[in-house]
Amino acid sequence: MTKISSSGPSTPRVAIIGGGAIGLACALELARRGAAVTVFEAGPRAGEGALRASGGMLAGGFEGASGTEARAFADFAARSLTLWDEWAAMLAPHAPSPLGYRRAGSLSPAFRDDDLEWLQRLDVSGVERLMPKEARRLEPSIAPDIRGALLFPEDGELDNRVLGPALAAAIRAEGGVIRESAPVETLLLRHGRAAGVRALGRAFEADMILAAPGAQAPTLREIPETQLIAPVQGEMLALAPGAARLNRAIRGRHVYLTQKPDGRIVAGATARPGVANLAVRSQAVDALRRAAIETIPALGGSEVIETWAGLRPASPDGAPVIGWSALPGVFLALGHHRNGVLLAPATAEAAAAAILDVCDTRFHHTLQVVSA
Ligand SMILES: Cc1cc2nc3c(=O)[nH]c(=O)nc-3n(C[C@H](O)[C@H](O)[C@H](O)COP(=O)(O)OP(=O)(O)OC[C@H]3O[C@@H](n4cnc5c(N)ncnc54)[C@H](O)[C@@H]3O)c2cc1C
């Protein structure tokens, strides 16, 4: 009789550095496909980094149209938007409160001549041009002096503060492990290859490492590509519920607005390259609030109930870095900049396919035929 046994573990062990939007999404996809995942999160709770600070918009159309990213980005964003329907349904049972996922599109309004020029630059195929009357019909609370708008019909939004706990619960339900307050200090290296991580004063062996440390990437010096990543700080505010109801995200030239399931309207965001602190400037909050009121006048009476800042992880050209590191055994999921929430499912899909493909090949090579 011939039987086949494996000299390596039958389930690939993947250590994930960073429990943010990207690390958690990759962990979930890997766990769903049968990997043994352990997420190492430096902070006290996973999902508290840029994910928690973000606007939670799924605005691939807008970003693709902005001209700052290549066609490849638009395709990748479109793929992720497609995956989001399935991900939202999969995550809903794990969410501690409504995920607030909706795909009603996003609306970019113009009030002045320079806004109209800006809209012309955004106008690409698949986008609907709206006359003022039509824009007001879709969004009755928008300022009456609107002169035109673009509708990005595929865009969506969700409550990013619910997404983190939902992802964490889904990972655990798949048998994954999340170690919190567990910063990865160094990588374990064996024969020039990453073979695990050192955290909590211990060594954790792994077959593969996935690096998703967000804006703190440069602290992981052994992984050369992390040195490309720099923070772009963004300030945001939330307005008390009750003053207005938005049917979709509003993406203006000076502010974007997105409403959460509890009625809060989140307004963002500034972009401060190289700023690595989380201090919020009062003049930035005032400017965002003014722009919010110009867009939706009913917000004039609503109180600012919270302000915060977060750090977007940005590569030199603003595009994400997804692929194998020059350091063998490390897969990179870095630099998701303004779009990490949007791009999380497609990044997870790409990362899981690449990692499991390599693991499969490696384990296949170690299979031994045993005759009995
Ligand atoms: C103000 C603002 C608004 C935004 N709005 C949107 C939006 O509307 N839509 C959208 O798609 N995107 C938005 N983004 C971008 C999005 O939030 C990011 O692209 C995304 O969160 C990046 O995910 P990440 O996992 O790479 O980083 P993070 O979410 O920051 O997670 C990285 C995690 O890694 C951990 N970590 C770092 N180093 C280590 C280590 N050595 N060991 C263990 N753990 C470590 C950190 O503690 C952190 O929890 C926004 C960002 C900001 C700041």
Q: How are the elements arranged and paired?
A:
Layout: E1 2-6, E2 13-17, H1 21-32, E3 36-40, H2 50-53, E4 57-58, H3 60-65, H4 71-91, E5 106-110, H5 113-122, E6 128-130, H6 132-138, E7 148-152, E8 156-157, H7 160-173, E9 177-179, E10 184-190, E11 193-199, E12 202-205, E13 208-211, E14 230-239, E15 249-251, E16 256-259, E17 265-268, E18 272-273, H8 282-295, E19 304-314, E20 321-324, E21 330-334, H9 340-366, E22 367-371
Helix pairs in contact: 1-7, 1-9, 4-9
Residues 17-23, 40-43, 48-51, 53-57, 183-184, 212-216, 219-220, 234, 236, 268-269, 310-313, 336-342 line the site of flavin-adenine dinucleotide.
Can you walk me through this structure?
This protein has 2 domains: 1-101 and 154-229 and 315-372, FAD/NAD(P)-binding domain (3-Layer(bba) Sandwich), CATH 3.50.50; 106-152 and 230-314, D-Amino Acid Oxidase, subunit A, domain 2 (D-Amino Acid Oxidase, Chain A, domain 2), CATH 3.30.9. It is α+β, with helices and mostly antiparallel strands and 372 residues long. The longest helix has 27 residues, at 340-366. The strands form 5 sheets. Strands 5, 6, 7, 14, 15, 16, 17, 18 and 19 form a 9-stranded mixed beta sheet that branches. The protein is elongated and about 65 Å long. It has helices spanning 21-32, 50-53, 60-65, 71-91, 113-122, 132-138, 160-173, 282-295, 340-366, and strands spanning 2-6, 13-17, 36-40, 57-58, 106-110, 128-130, 148-152, 156-157, 177-179, 184-190, 193-199, 202-205, 208-211, 230-239, 249-251, 256-259, 265-268, 272-273, 304-314, 321-324, 330-334, 367-371. It starts with a strand and ends with a strand. The chain binds flavin-adenine dinucleotide. Flavin-adenine dinucleotide (FAD) binds at residues 17-23, 40-43, 48-51, 53-57, 183-184, 212-216, 219-220, 234, 236, 268-269, 310-313, 336-342. Flavin-adenine dinucleotide binds at residues 17-23, 40-43, 48-51, 53-57, 183-184, 212-216, 219-220, 234, 236, 268-269, 310-313, 336-342.
